[in-house]
Predict the structure of SHSP domain-containing protein.
Amino acid sequence: MSLVRRSSVFDPFADFLDPFDGVFRSLVPSITSSDRDTTAFANARIDWKETPEAHVIKADIPGVKKEEVKVEVEDGNVLVISGERSKEKEDKNDKWHRVERSSGKFMRRFRLPENAKVDEVKAGLENGVLTVTVPKAEVKRPEVKSIQISG
């Protein structure tokens, strides 16, 4: 677990222990950009919940159009969410007082469980939140056959 700030971008929760720190790190490629603010966007915040019917993954990606986002399943059960938010066009006559919004590429990968129906994945983007729904297959319970005891 880590208490180290990873970016110059203010994060009110940065000092909290992250129980999942490093869990998915091996699945996420390292970021080579020297722009620390881009790193904050590249690590888009994700929520993953499981309901009785599906796995629901939500990603905060404000300012990104649906044409700039890709949701794919690779290697049979790895969900990949990727995209890019472009920098705002700068006019030479503009005088910037503060630049806090980040831009750049992002990619997150998640290994889906065996009960995921990867052929039925659906995604929607509304108000800067990408929602990916992965339906779950019904778990077949083994048939139990009673054996009569003789004697």
Observations:
- DSSP finds one helix and seven strands in the chain.
- The first strand starts at residue 46 and ends at 50.
- The chain has a mean pLDDT of 77.
